[in-house]
């Protein structure tokens, strides 16, 4: 098992393969295209790179001709498909402890990001970060939301629990049963990828909890955490810090190294080992974020420039033209931009995010809607 770079567990491809068994997806071709060993799908400890983890979902959705299908496919998978991680949630004592377990044990699923669980005055939310510069992640996120929501439905024994789902990507052109089920509680073009809960649900006992069984589950998860948790990706730490620092205009090497508690040379050496440099990483994250803001939002150009850390609109415009060959306005107006930017299906799509962001209310304000 490779232990360098950003990875995610390969079993998600096995689940995708199995739920699409009748659709004749060419998995040998997919594995060759996205550069992973097909045998990893059935390896309990198999992992794949993050670009492959994202790209395969985009490829599959396009081959299936339905850009909303991942919601339904993963909202209907059986509990246990993702081994111990499923049972950490399903068998927890309460919803609060289930979410805490997700956050604590996310390193057994991927080293590319951390899952956030945060309580507010009126409720709580779990949040998946946006991975700028690691390829188009939209379909992968739809799958994760579909799966996570099903976990919540089954744990609470509710067909449609009173949750709020926010996705920082454009609404799909197709319609899924999942979208219809959560109509009015599903928001696209949000500022983050979140599922929010009213406070009244957090302490609710979950129907599958058994103290003795859960102790066994926690021991098994801890064993996996000791195994997978050692494979931290320095690139993830650096990239995520750069993305978080964009609006502060503090994405210089000295500033990022200081935030990470590392020397500048140490950061440079880590990036060199990953085949990149700080300048290239910073540029790719900005380019990826710019594409996400421009392609499907009407956010003012000045605001986008600010969010990307540009002090002048003219500097932002020159950067966009160097990245895409056209002005920011042309990128926004180009109706076929997404297809124009993507490579053919026979090769992996370029590293580009493909979502949408608008300003939304803070979590504690949004949650008040549940208590009215």
TrEMBL record:
<keyword id="KW-0805">Transcription regulation</keyword>
<protein>
    <submittedName>
        <fullName>Helix-turn-helix domain-containing protein</fullName>
    </submittedName>
</protein>
<keyword id="KW-0238">DNA-binding</keyword>
<dbReference type="Pfam" id="PF12625">
    <property type="entry name" value="Arabinose_bd"/>
</dbReference>
<feature type="region of interest" description="Disordered">
    <location>
        <begin position="337"/>
        <end position="372"/>
    </location>
</feature>
<dbReference type="InterPro" id="IPR009057">
    <property type="entry name" value="Homeodomain-like_sf"/>
</dbReference>
<dbReference type="InterPro" id="IPR018060">
    <property type="entry name" value="HTH_AraC"/>
</dbReference>
<dbReference type="InterPro" id="IPR032687">
    <property type="entry name" value="AraC-type_N"/>
</dbReference>
<feature type="domain" description="HTH araC/xylS-type">
    <location>
        <begin position="236"/>
        <end position="334"/>
    </location>
</feature>
<keyword id="KW-0804">Transcription</keyword>
<dbReference type="Pfam" id="PF12833">
    <property type="entry name" value="HTH_18"/>
</dbReference>
